[in-house]
Amino acid sequence: MILIIEGDALTMQSIIEIKKLFYRYEKEIVLEDININVPTGSFLAIVGPNGSGKSTLLKLILGLLKPQKGEILLFGQEINKFKDWQQIGYVSQKANSFNSGFPATVFEVVSSGLTKKLGMFKFFKKEHSQKVFAALDAVDMKKFSNKNLGELSGGQQQRVFIARAIVSEPSLLILDEPTVGVDAENVDTFYHMLDDLNVNRRITLLLVTHDIGTISDKVSHVACINKHLYFHGETHEFEQFQADDMSKVYGHDVQLIAHHHEHGGVVK
Fold this sequence. Notes:
The structure is a single chain. With 268 residues, the protein is an alpha/beta fold. Helix content is 27%, strand content 26%. It has nine helices and 13 strands. The protein has helices spanning 8-11, 54-61, 106-111, 115-118, 126-138, 154-166, 187-199, 235-238, 243-250; strands at residues 3-4, 14-25, 28-39, 43-47, 69-74, 77-78, 88-91, 172-176, 204-209, 221-226, 228-234, 262-263, 266-267. The strands form three sheets. Strands 1-11-10-4-9-8-7 form a seven-stranded mixed β-sheet, sandwiched between helices. Strands 3-2-5-6 form a four-stranded antiparallel β-sheet. A two-stranded antiparallel ribbon has the order 12-13. Helix 5 (126-138) crosses helix 6 (154-166). It is globular and about 50 Å long. The two termini are 22 Å apart. The model is unreliable at 1-11, 257-262 and 264-268 (pLDDT under 50).
């Protein structure tokens, strides 16, 4: 069963448009006929089990792989013609395996996010320092600016890497399994921070995760994939998705927990 919800939120201007996308590795089809829109201002979670094609989809969106069939538009432009990559911030899973012995302060790590914008040999000015502190303030890590990154907890380090990704003021932030390394008791606080980036700082968010149990009350839209697209729509419609249909996607029983509150003007 494929359930695609066509509503106002999905027909508004999109930052990402994926149309009839196919991808295979040798003889194995990894993604088949994927159609996803990421509306401007939304908070989309792409969910699916391990091995469902989520990582491949991310690589395609980031231009690391080329579509074999279908198309991807970024900010209305075909991805092979898109040049303004500063509009996209990205935090990978590898950020969670950072070498804690690396001698860099929080400020230095975040400021490195401006290297591409400034160039390797440009002088760091007061206005650039202000950008770094603003990014740290956005993730509630300003008070740790002089700390060595290795002294921080996993969740704090993840916030620093998000600050690094947003210091160049992108319109879109992509996060790959961002709560890996975040203590369970701090996950809600972490998502509250992401919600603030989305709603108050107007950054469109795309989050990839295999754990659907933690996102049902935290995002505005959901796309559920396992090689095929099984669902694409707003979160309140995803909560109505039948549990047995989700079990087909994941290969085992899945419990969806329904929550309803306002998220950036979208009722969830």
